[in-house]
Amino acid sequence: MKLLICLSLQVLIDNIKEFAPIVYTPTVGLICENYGGLYRRPRGMYFSAKDQGEMMSMIHNWPSKQVDMIVVTDGSRILGLGDLGIQGIGIPIGKLDIYVAAAGINPQR
């Protein structure tokens, strides 16, 4: 799976102008609508209302100490699809894929 992610990012990097409009909209919207059935492994950090006051300690507990960028969403108003809740994680993942490809950011960071 990790190899597939690396290969797909390389294709996106090599063809950013062609694939950026496809990768983000409509693909991310479709993924968000069906994320529960597509789940393979965790990607992202999730907070609930019960985590209020603990978010900074949770962020500092992230396993990677070298993080260049984060994208945050509350899962509401996803591409005009409405509140998708936790399935909205596809938005930050899709945005980060575009940022990695367009800006040359190391996807491991």
Automatic annotation (TrEMBL):
BP GO annotations: malate metabolic process
UniProt cross-references to Pfam families, sorted A to Z: malic (PF00390)
A molecular function (GO) term: malate dehydrogenase (decarboxylating) (NAD+) activity
InterPro entries reported in the protein's UniProt record: Aminoacid_DH-like_N_sf, Malic_N_dom, Malic_N_dom_sf, Malic_OxRdtase
GO CC entries: mitochondrion
Malic enzyme N-terminal domain: residues covered: 1-109
SMART domains associated with the record: malic (SM01274)
Gene3D superfamilies: Malic enzyme, N-terminal domain
Protein name: Malic enzyme N-terminal domain-containing protein
